[in-house]
DNA sequence: TCTAAAACATGTTATTCAGCACAAAGGTAA
DNA sequence: TTACCTTTGTGCTGAATAACATGTTTTAGA
């Protein structure tokens, strides 16, 4: 892989570096592919790499009480993940899997740590990213615990639009999730995800066609999400 | 305040610094006192200071749907807080208040940012801290959403023991929370906190004497917490 | 193309927990 | 003291939602 190609894959990481650091990074750069639904890492494993999603869609999730799965966050193209546990000096407390076929760039964490020690701007990038993620996690805790089912599902739909965007028609979500994943994202059972989605469709807030979801009344969904 | 005194207040921040940086920090050091139940900062405000709790106990909380309060985390002596939002370039998404009379050290965030740019070891301290907090937040999301009332309350009691410790008898929690705060920590109504606490007492897992709580059967509480 | 499995859909029941209402106990101030 | 407010405690009711059962549709593999 040429340096120019590496630079294009991981601009946020690349940009702050000196020429010397860039050469070092380019020498420690791997790319790996994952199939749809393939596990990327598991809870309890020892983290070794920082990962950057080059293309595809990834879920970070956690299996809780009685094996019930909760999606903690989702990763879109160009985002970094899988590094938190190493930096906290822990094993993974979450697992990651591919929603769709993915290409992921892997960089050994010791390489990252060395760069962090040499490059203050890079450190600030990680500090900012972790700070943002922690704020999101705090918001999410309250949403998931206090909002009612309709509010949680509406929030998830809007969140998916924000994260992965829409197709050419400006309203069909670009991600086709199973009802089960939608449920795990919204902290509810699969039955209730199906039911509530049907209700939204009956109220003409959305149109469902299999896994394809069109958001018709975004403002009303926002209202439902906000009032809980 | 002498440099030695400053050093004692904020060892984690102080230790990585050069002599020059220490002098700079010592010149930008304030100490402020807060009364019991006094608000330290509010949601929506613009963050200006990193805070370090010198003594006392602090809650970080968030008012959610219908003003229902959720305690997100608690701070003990020597811990840093209130810096996340500034580093994420956001306003506060949480609020902070004193459980008990507190002494807090305040350092303007621009001072911290300057030190972060100069000192890689200090950056690593914040990266590690944020990474740990994010892991805790992820775990907490699943606990609060999936565990049942008894599991959540048991977890809170054990968490309070871990965080603030116990008195000389080795089993009385050192923090005397109102039932309301205990409820907000455990994501339940005050009535249910009272009821479940009474049940634990009836089962001889704990002894309650007003706000004083003695943990008798820690292993059984751990089991209740784990199975949810 | 057939078959089996997975995903989707919907109705019913059971459980958990929030939301009262109200009373007792403790603390605080005039 | 008395009065008042806050906190604690308890019972009852109903709403929200998980769990279960069952049938249908879609998908994937042989």
Task: Write up what this structure looks like.
The structure is a homodimer of 228-residue chains. Chain A folds into 2 domains: 3-143, Jelly Rolls; 148-227, Winged helix-like DNA-binding domain superfamily/Winged helix DNA-binding domain (Arc Repressor Mutant, subunit A, Orthogonal Bundle), CATH 1.10.10.10. Chain A has a 4-stranded antiparallel β-sheet with strand order 1-8-3-6. With 228 residues, chain A is of the alpha+beta class. Chain A is elongated and about 60 Å long. The longest helix of chain A has 27 residues, at 120-146. The mean pLDDT of chain A is 96. Chain A is built from 10 helices and 10 strands. Helices cover 47% and strands 21% of the residues of chain A. The structure holds a DNA duplex (30 and 30 nucleotides).
- Identify the quaternary structure here: homodimer
The percent range for strand residues of chain A is: 15-25%
- Which of globular, elongated, flat, extended, rod-shaped describes the shape of chain A? elongated
State the CATH topology of the largest domain in chain A. Jelly Rolls
Largest interface: A-B, 46 and 46 residues
């Amino acid at each position: 892989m040429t340096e120019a190609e590496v630079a294009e894959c991981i601009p946020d990481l690349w940009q702050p570096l000196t020429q010397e650091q860039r050469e070092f990074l380019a020498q420690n750069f791997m790319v790996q592919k994952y199939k749809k639904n393939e596990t990327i890492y598991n809870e309890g494993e020892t983290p070794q790499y920082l990962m950057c999603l080059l293309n595809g869609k990834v879920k970070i999730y956690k299996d809780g009480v009685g094996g019930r799965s909760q999606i903690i966050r989702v990763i879109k193209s160009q985002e970094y993940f899988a590094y938190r546990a190493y930096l906290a000096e822990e094993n993974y407390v979450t697992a990651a899997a591919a929603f769709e076929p993915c290409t992921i760039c892997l960089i050994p964490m010791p390489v990252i740590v060395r760069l962090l020690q040499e490059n203050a701007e890079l450190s600030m990038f990680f500090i900012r990213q972790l700070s943002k993620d922690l704020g999101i996690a705090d918001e999410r805790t309250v949403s998931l615990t206090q909002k009612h089912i309709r509010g949680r599902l509406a929030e998830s739909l809007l969140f998916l639009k924000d994260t992965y965007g829409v197709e050419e028609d400006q309203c069909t979500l670009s991600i086709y999730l199973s009802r089960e994943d939608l449920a795990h994202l919204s902290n509810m059972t699969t039955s209730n995800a199906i039911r509530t989605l049907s209700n939204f469709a009956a109220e003409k807030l959305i149109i469902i066609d299999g896994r394809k979801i069109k958001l018709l009344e975004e403002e009303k969904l926002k209202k439902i999400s906000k009032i809980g």
